[in-house]
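Hey, can you fold this one?
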Amino acid sequence: MARSVRMYGSYYWTHPRFSDERLMSACEALQADVAETWPGPISPFLTLLRSGDQAAVGIALDAYQRSSALSRFGGAPLYGAHQAEVLKAARELLRQPPSSADMSPETGAGANHASALNAMMNVAEQQDCDLIADALEQTTNPAVVEAAADAAGAAFFHTEGPPHVRLLALVAAYIDDADRPLQLRVRMLSALEGCQAPEATAHLLRALHRPEVEIQVQAAVGLADGDRLDAHRELLERVAASWPDDAPYMAEEVRRILAGEDD
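Sure. Predicted structure:
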C-alpha cells in the first residue's frame, strides 16, 4: 500500500506517494533535518534519480537544483559530479507526457516537466531546445512555464550560431501576449539575455518599445551589455529616462550601467 511523505526540500513534489519502501526511505533520508543539513547524502539521491519513477526522479532533480543554488554561497554543488546523469534523467522526463495533477496537487499537471526544466536551468544544451519547446507548447501551468523560461535561457546561451527557430518563436510569442501573466512574460524575456544572436537582439528591441515598464526594464537589462550597449546606448538612455520612480529595481542597475558606474 502506498504511503506519502512530506517533502520540504522539493520544489514540485510536496506529498509523493510510493508503494516501494526503498523510495520512501530514500525520500526520508534525503530530507532528514532539511533545515540544517540539506541537500542530504548522495546514496538516497542516486536511488531516486535512477528509479525510473516520475515523482522520485523529479524529487532527485529538485535536490540537484537546490544543491546548485546553494553552492552560490560557497563550495561545489554536492551533486555536481552527476550532472551528465541528471541531464539524461531530465531529458527522459521531458520525453514523457506531463504528469497528472493528482500526482502533485499543489503544483498541478506537469510537475515532472517542471522538475526536469528547473534542473536544466544552468546546464541545458543546444540539443535540448526541442524538448524545452515541446514542454512549453504542452503546458498552461505557470510552474512549468517559469522553469521552461530558465531552461531556454541556458539552451540559448550554450547554442553556437543562430538560436533554435521554434523555441525562439515560442519565447517571443509568450513575451508579446498581453493576456499572459506579466511576471511570466518578464521571466521569459530574461531567456534572451545570454543569446547574442541578431534574432534575439531584435526581440529585445521590440520588447523595449512595449508599453509595460516591467517589460521595458527587462529588455534593457538584456541590451545594456557589450556590443548591444554600444549599438543602442542612445535608445536605452531615452527609454530609461521615461521610467517612473517606482520602476522595477533593475531599472536602477540599467541607469548605473548607462552612467558608467559599473565600469
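The chain has 14 helices and two strands. Let me know if you want another pass with a different chain boundary.
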